[in-house]
Give the backbone structure.
Amino acid sequence: ETGVTQSPTHLIKTRGQQVTLRCSSQSGHNTVSWYQQALGQGPQFIFQYYREEENGRGNFPPRFSGLQFPNYSSELNVNALELDDSALYLCASSTELFQETQYFGPGTRLLVL
Amino acid sequence: RKEVEQDPGPFNVPEGATVAFNCTYSNSASQSFFWYRQDCRKEPKLLMSVYSSGNEDGRFTAQLNRASQYISLLIRDSKLSDSATYLCVPGGSQGNLIFGKGTKLSVKP
């Protein structure tokens, strides 16, 4: 196991609602990246947090936002949920020196109805 | 051109076989390269980091050709437990990873 934890494991929401997903990074890791994986696709980069600030962002709209806390844990917030937001949301942690060597948590499976 | 291109498979091989996966990537600025494996409905697990021209870890050998923007993974003596989707992953420009759809491997008894 990587030591990266995510909650909740599963979630069902309806269109238009808001959702918050949580991630705790591996001990000693201060960088957290979030990815969205739709069925049959590879994970797509949403954003990365380092030192409590967004450090990079993929091609996702502003209704996808995040936070990082002093203990390096992170949240992903999605507003105004759409049906296409149904996916596996993965967080990955890494160190600042090796930000691309990333270890993934088990993911949160979100279903939007 | 897609950022990462892999043969989706599936590759169906018998136990003990040697199998090779190929991958091309479009971002010539990528500095880091990885292979991940992903089991059905699970998270990707880091299999290997790919250094300079390549490296070996037990039954797994990865090769990198920066000039051709090509990465390969060779698995020797395949085990049933090697059945998974294998993802070739170059690093992006924002500390992120760039994933394609991966190649599905099924090892049969």
